[in-house]
Design goal:
Blueprint: E1 2-11, H1 16-36, E2 44-49, E3 52-61, E4 67-75, H2 76-79, H3 88-97, E5 105-109, E6 112-121, H4 126-139, E7 147-149, E8 154-156, E9 160-167, E10 170-171, E11 175-176, E12 179-180, E13 184-186, E14 195-197, H5 204-210, H6 217-234, E15 238-239, H7 243-250, E16 256-262, H8 272-280, E17 286-289, E18 295-304, H9 310-335, H10 359-376, H11 382-391, H12 399-402, H13 413-421, H14 426-434, H15 449-468, H16 482-496, H17 502-516, H18 522-543, H19 548-555, E19 558-561, E20 564-567, H20 572-584, H21 591-607, H22 624-646, H23 649-657, H24 660-669, H25 677-695
Antiparallel strand pairs: 1-3, 1-9, 2-3, 4-6, 5-6, 7-8, 9-10, 11-12, 13-14, 15-17, 16-18, 17-18, 19-20
Helix pairs in contact: 1-4, 8-9, 10-11, 10-15, 10-17, 11-14, 11-15, 13-14, 14-15, 15-16, 15-17, 16-18, 17-18, 18-19, 19-20, 21-25, 22-23, 22-24, 22-25
């Protein structure tokens, strides 16, 4: 037998941003609770509005499943006296487990002989075990911000006003938040302010619907989206897409009603982003546009209620919006009075990071670093990028960003508009507008070459400054957004396919800081930055689906550049290409045997104590299998040497795989660690050259093969 379970927490209006996070906790918490209680159940359905968080679970078993467990008791020598009689220790153990001494068995364990017993637990009824555990799930919910309510009796995001807990048609007496659960919920605060009696879990959704509450967030969102598109069509416009804003509005209402409003067309002289932000921030209005993409002097808003009195509500919303647009128009006109170039000197009065100088100093560092990056990556974009670097932070001095708090998210974007109005080239203006991108994981990288250079420089400088100032991230704490900046820099080079040597870049991006303060621990900071970049690249490759050992193999390679070598992580785009190619070849039948052989090579070389000869003495290789390995090595070198510069890893790996038989034959027939030190050293040198051929692209000792998996 089974019955449906319903649990609802009635709460004062929660902020829209809280609901999805808390609902996830509630759903997962109840599922985990049922599993721990051994109560079989069917599917789980979450419900949420600003005033309620609820979960309905289908087909919950009426009783726990019976359960048996093996309980280990004391050591046999402590359980029985020399005459074989049970001791007080054994008797106490049996009493604690509810078994008799005759049920005990002796077992051998790695620690010696012990006693054990099988304890059978008879399942209790769901009605008995659920109330206390449901209360624990409810009081264990965490919110982005919690407060103590009802004289400090409990913490929650808002005060809890009622609880509903039903198992089938029966009430579960869950006690939490100073309340005892019943079957009475509440309808819409205005349209149906009274109680709503819930007869059974299956009747929950329909009962609330009759009380003007759409409890299913998916159904409510579907209705909201349909209303928005109907209202836009009625206004002979189209909705400016904004999924996040749709979700916010959905979590603000229980009964959505969409209506249209308008504002004076004079405000369309503002940049599009400003107008949309004025509509969106705080007011949660949707923007409208024409078929050609131009913004319309109108908006759509969502009311939590029906269509009564909409004219009054519309006029009130229009009035609030006009006040915000007037502020924005004032900020815009004021900021246009001074071109960005005239503000560069004023950046000297603004501290960038404590102990690291002003925004003016940062602007000049960005100008230098952007130029260096341009020479290495995109020379044609150098002029636009370096000009943009000098002007990029000047919009922080303007009224729009400095005074208009809701417009702070338009940093950079406004700088681009000001640059255009001041007559700066479009490439420069676009780079300024893009230089904060990507702002997060879902944001695109800059679209223009100059924008990519400046965004990269800005993030690199931020990372360098944080490390120099000792503001590095620790554990999960990253108050200065250093990891976000590092992730953004890595994303730019990966998504744009830019081959940037991060080791050389680290030296360049810290150069100005070290010049300003020669007492800084140069070597220590550079070492920590290397570890930081390797970690950021490892995360980026993981996000792109590269297995952990494949990532390690690519990142721990030693890339040869002329007479020098660099770690495999230095060029993130190259590391990704090598890792993906290696992953594609893992299905080759020769791959894992070759990995095993390579690890043997690596282990032998690691164990060698004497210095290896500087060069291989080819004439001393007399054994046919020594010669065979050398000949295969030479053929592989000839085949792949030109391919390294071309980064043609898909052709390099097959050539390396051809070495499996010669290496295998060498190990089968040749003893490496012979007594003759000259012969031994020469053979070790041969193995070193084999290793160096592989490790130029991949350290195969990092690969986990089948026999090594736990």
């Amino acid at each position: 037998m089974s019955r449906d379970l319903l649990f609802e927490i009635g709460i004062e209006e929660l902020p829209a941003g809280y609901i999805q996070m808390v609902m996830y906790q509630l759903k997962m918490g109840i599922n985990a609770m049922l599993d721990e209680l051994r109560l079989q159940h069917g599917d789980t359905y979450p419900y949420s509005t600003p005033r309620r968080l609820a979960v309905l679970v289908r087909d919950v078993a009426e009783r726990q499943a019976d359960h048996s467990e093996e309980a280990m008791g004391p050591a046999a020598k402590a359980a029985f006296d020399p005459q074989g009689q049970p001791t007080r220790a054994l008797i106490g153990f049996c009493q604690g487990k509810g078994v008799s001494v005759g049920d005990v068995r002796r077992v051998d364990t790695p620690k010696g002989e012990y006693v054990t017993v099988t304890v059978h637990h008879v399942g209790r009824s769901a009605a008995d075990v659920l109330p206390e555990r449901l209360a624990g799930v409810a009081t264990g919910l965490t919110y982005p911000k919690s407060m103590r309510w009802d004289d400090g009796d409990y913490r929650a995001g808002r005060p809890v006003r009622w609880l509903v807990a039903l198992l089938g048609e029966s009430v579960l007496p869950v006690k939490a938040f100073g309340l005892t659960a019943g079957r009475d919920s509440f309808g819409h605060r205005v349209l149906h302010p009274g109680k709503v009696s819930i007869a059974s879990p299956a009747a929950y959704e329909a009962a609330l619907l009759a009380a003007h509450v759409i409890a299913d967030p998916a159904a409510r969102r579907e209705k909201l989206v349909a209303q928005l598109h109907e209202a836009a069509e009625a206004a002979e416009a189209r909705l400016v897409p904004d999924d996040e804003l749709t979700d916010i509005n959905n979590h603000l209402v229980e009964w959505p009603t969409t209506f249209a409003g308008a504002f004076d067309g004079k405000y369309l002289t503002l940049p599009r982003e400003v107008t949309v932000t004025a509509l969106r921030e705080h007011q949660w209005f949707f923007a409208l546009e024409s078929d050609d993409g131009t913004l319309r002097p109108g908006f759509l808003a969502v009311r939590n209620g029906d269509d009564r009195g909409l004219d009054v509500i519309r006029r009130g919303n229009e009035g609030v919006l006009v006040a915000r647009l007037e502020d924005a128009l004032f900020y815009w006109n004021t900021d246009l009075k001074q071109p960005p170039a005239a503000l560069v000197e004023k950046l000297d009065a603004v501290v960038w990071m404590e102990g690291l100088g002003s925004l003016k100093a940062k602007a000049h560092r960005l100008e230098s670093l952007t130029g260096w990056l341009a020479d290495a990556l995109l020379p044609a974009a150098k002029q636009a990028a370096t000009r943009a670097a000098l002007l990029a932070k000047t919009d922080l001095l303007g009224e729009m960003i400095g005074s208009g708090k809701e417009y702070a998210s338009l940093e950079g974007v406004m700088g681009g508009h000001y640059a255009r109005r001041a007559g700066e080239p479009e490439a420069t203006a676009a780079a300024i507008a893009e230089h904060y991108r990507p702002r997060g994981a879902g944001d695109a990288i800059p679209a223009t070459p100059a924008g990519r250079l400046l965004a990269l420089a800005d993030k690199l400088d931020h990372v360098a400054g944080a490390f120099v100032a000792g503001k590095t991230p620790t554990g999960s704490e990253d108050p200065f957004g250093v990891r976000r900046a590092g992730n953004g820099a890595v994303r730019i080079v990966l998504d744009a396919g830019l081959h940037l040597d991060l080791r050389a870049t680290t030296m360049e991006m810290t150069r100005h800081f070290f010049a300003a303060d020669p007492e800084l621990p140069h070597a220590e900071i550079i070492k920590k930055l290397g570890e930081f970049w390797r970690g950021r690249i490892d995360v980026a490759l993981e996000e792109r689906g590269v297995a952990y050992d494949t990532r390690d193999a690519a990142l721990e390679a030693r890339i040869v550049m002329g007479d020098a070598a660099r770690p495999g992580w230095c060029d993130a785009a190259d590391a990704l290409a090598r890792a993906r190619t290696l992953g594609e070849f893992r299905g080759d039948a020769r791959f894992e045997p070759l990995v095993v052989l390579y690890k043997r090579v690596a282990n032998i070389l690691k164990a060698a104590t004497e210095p290896l000869p500087a060069q291989l003495d080819r004439a001393r290789l007399a054994d046919p299998y020594e010669k065979g390995l050398l000949e295969a090595l030479d053929r592989a070198r000839v085949a792949i040497t030109p391919l390294w510069d071309q980064r043609d890893y898909a052709r390099i790996l097959p050539a390396l795989l051809e070495l499996d038989r010669p290496i295998h034959g060498f190990f089968d027939k040749v003893m490496v660690n012979v007594d003759d030190p000259v012969v031994r050293g020469n053979r070790l040198r041969l193995l070193r050259e084999v290793s160096e051929l592989f490790v130029r692209g991949w350290d195969l000792s990092r690969i986990v093969v089948e026999g090594e998996r736990a």
